Amino acid sequence: MPRSPLIVRTLPALRRALDGLRVRKATVALVPTMGALHDGHIALVRLAKRRATRVVVSIFVNPAQFAPHEDFGSYPRTWKADIARLAAEGVDMVWNPDVKTMYPAGFATKIITEGPATADLEDRFRPHFFGGVTTVVGKLFTQTRPDMAFFGEKDFQQLKVVTRMARDLDLGVKVTGATTVRERDGLAMSSRNVYLSAAERAAAPVLYRTLKAAAKRLRDGDAITATMAAAADAITEAGFELDYVEARHSESLAPVKSIKEGPLRLLVAARIGKTRLIDNVGV
Length: 283
Description:
The protein is α/β, with parallel strands linked by helices. Helices cover 37% and strands 19% of the residues. α6 packs across α7 (156-168).
């Protein structure tokens, strides 16, 4: 029977536990999550185990990145199943603070970033989001003091924002992105996929198929404007309410007019029913 990870909920206990993990100059990797773990999270854990001596997984549903109209209260919480999965992977420690630990009374500090956080993608539709992400991730980094941290590429803009924050603030953390893990039909794995009805789940892979088709058109020499317009039409015709489908530079996230301007990333966000899905592919 796999050994359960050490579960830590207070800052003093966290500091003691980290001192124990760092014996003999061990390297520590952090995998930040909001729980409701799926195979994409487990892929991050396995990558972390290959790269580091010890692995810490944080589970914290961060209220600061949810707007009032979003799904904080109903966000999936599957604690027992999550711990069982992490035990099976041999995770060393789970950092599971409560809201009062992360945001005590009088908390008045935020980390606000520009650059990729103001690329007019997620920030256009969720202006509160990256301030919540960078603040909580910055706290997780300073609390756990990892040598490295792992994030999925599905949240591509978030990955770029966190990477830039860690670099700009000299946090001493190497941020690594991992390839998006997908269902057999191409749908990017997400904790929010459980919200989809059967009909919505059947339609959801259209996002990935459309991005792949657009990427091929661009590689074949088609114009960006026409290609992305066709992608937008295909997504809306499949029953989605489209927020954006964009071709951007894969590092700066700046708009591009030609494939010659550098490595490209195609990014999409769209809502079907009550569920908002995001995805991206490289060109």
